[in-house]
């Protein structure tokens, strides 16, 4: 006689959760080096920090984030194997901003109903991103919330920890007038501004399974293009004498706000729009929304996923190194100090009283690589 399980009757299937863990185990284990102890399934992940003894003054860096409403598109088209890459991009790429090497990441998935294959696909994407950034996926949690979330609804979040030598921390205090600002190409929308994307698409009556004539595929495939991962190329760049003074991850808030966060007070930058052409996905969506590209600058990255502030004498070499790693890189501005011109500058952001940035000029015509680029923009996650 089958035993009575009131928890199952309440909508929570612990057996499905166990099945999901079994399906994801191999993907998670592939992110583990000898520093990870205990394997999969413990109450806490264990990471051997002995290597930190080699640091003179190791500083731990930490970051947490999610993917936002991009998950709604993954749910709508039942494609879940790339959302995890987006999560790693949002979390781990924030750590490299200060020059830190990522050590490990934990994830959290909340869902209305555990579908083992779906959960395993999400985690496989997280594991892929972790492998590409050199991050160990040491643990996580899948929580079933029936009644709070619909059967096909879920959200994902993650937290990561990295380490950097104290005297190698990047930031505004290293930046000086005359430094060059380099733009690193994005793979597309990344994981920001999807509430606007979804509003535009819904307003036009477009389904995610509909054919997107401008792209030769469905709208769902276009909008689920994974976030480019910058950590490994940037760490390779930082391992030499690259002259990098600050990095900025272009996420929510756009180019100007995120660059202003890593500039010292009293400095300013004019970012020249003419140095690149925003990729077609931004232009098409802006047209569908009946808005100029400039109106989306505080929402979308418009083709720039990262910014590097580099000593002028190192700028060409840094751009060439990143291009050799598959990331188109070009100069968009120069750091200035003293009296700044009149204009609509973005002054700091996220509580940071930093420098000031504005975008000037008109974007280059579509159809080519960024002006001054030392590599092709590329597609997909690195």
Automatic annotation (TrEMBL):
Region (Disordered): 363-382
UniProt xrefs under PANTHER family: TRIFUNCTIONAL PURINE BIOSYNTHETIC PROTEIN ADENOSINE-3 (PTHR10520:SF12), TRIFUNCTIONAL PURINE BIOSYNTHETIC PROTEIN ADENOSINE-3-RELATED (PTHR10520)
Catalytic activity: 2-formamido-N(1)-(5-O-phospho-beta-D-ribosyl)acetamidine + ATP = 5-amino-1-(5-phospho-beta-D-ribosyl)imidazole + ADP + phosphate + H(+)
Pathway: Purine metabolism; IMP biosynthesis via de novo pathway; 5-amino-1-(5-phospho-D-ribosyl)imidazole from N(2)-formyl-N(1)-(5-phospho-D-ribosyl)glycinamide: step 2/2
One Pfam family in the UniProt entry: AIRS_C
Segments forming domain PurM-like C-terminal: 177-341
UniProt-listed Enzyme Commission number(s): 6.3.3.1
NCBIfam families assigned: purM
Chain ranges of the PurM-like N-terminal domain: 48-164
Enzyme class: ligase
Family membership noted in the UniProt record: Belongs to the AIR synthase family.
Locations listed in the record: Cytoplasm
Species of origin: Microbacterium wangchenii
Keywords for this protein: ATP-binding, Cytoplasm, Ligase, Nucleotide-binding, Purine biosynthesis
Chief subcellular location: cytoplasm
Protein name: Phosphoribosylformylglycinamidine cyclo-ligase
GO molecular function: phosphoribosylformylglycinamidine cyclo-ligase activity
